[in-house]
Write a structure and sequence with these properties.
- This protein is mainly α.
- The chain has 6 helices and 2 strands, in the order H-H-H-H-H-E-E-H.
- Strands 1-2 form a two-stranded antiparallel ribbon.
- The protein starts with 11 loop residues before the first helix and ends in a 5-residue tail after the last helix.
Length: 169
């Protein structure tokens, strides 16, 4: 995934998609070149790892686009995850995963999300209902994905700097 600055003159759809892709590529950049031990490194005050963030955001992509928006059942590895025993399974299981697998899992989830977004209109509504009984527009989901990915990229910044001193975008 190539990290490209979003256009300053794009329409609404392109702006949303470009900002989301920029945030997605930023996460991959933060994890680039790190081995399993480095991806599992934590800050003293947190249980977060770059491995966990990669797997969590892959889950977030699939959960929102495939399950909530399209109404599809969970695919693997989410379908067989022991959610009832561990609500944060994706974070806890990630250190056991190969770094290449984690990157591929995330990139594939992003590609599936892009395909869903391309085939739908911004005003199209999700199959799943919110807690208040409303459907989510694709626009809302894309903004939420931007927000969640950007927030976790802030965590990724701190984690990466603690691993090898790499800072910045």
């Amino acid at each position: 995934m190539t990290r490209t600055d979003p256009s300053t003159i794009a329409d609404e759809r392109a702006t949303l998609e470009q900002f989301l892709d920029y945030q997605r590529a930023t996460l991959l950049l933060k994890a680039e070149g790190l081995d399993r031990e480095q991806l599992d490194r934590r800050l003293p005050s947190s249980g977060l790892t770059l491995a966990g963030l990669l797997k969590h955001l892959a889950y977030v992509e699939d959960s929102w686009m495939q399950e909530s928006f399209l109404g599809r059942p969970p695919a693997e590895p989410w379908a067989s995850a022991p959610w009832q025993d561990d609500r944060d399974w994706e974070f806890h299981s990630a250190p056991d995963d190969d770094p290449g697998y984690l990157r591929t899992l995330y990139e594939a989830a992003c590609a599936r999300s892009r395909a869903v977004a391309t085939a739908a209109g911004l005003d199209d509504l999700s199959v799943e209902l919110s807690r208040s009984g409303e459907r989510y527009s694709l626009r809302w989901i894309l903004v939420h994905l931007i927000e969640e990915t950007a927030r976790h990229n802030g965590h990724a910044d701190l984690l990466r700097e603690s691993i090898d001193g790499v800072v910045g975008e």
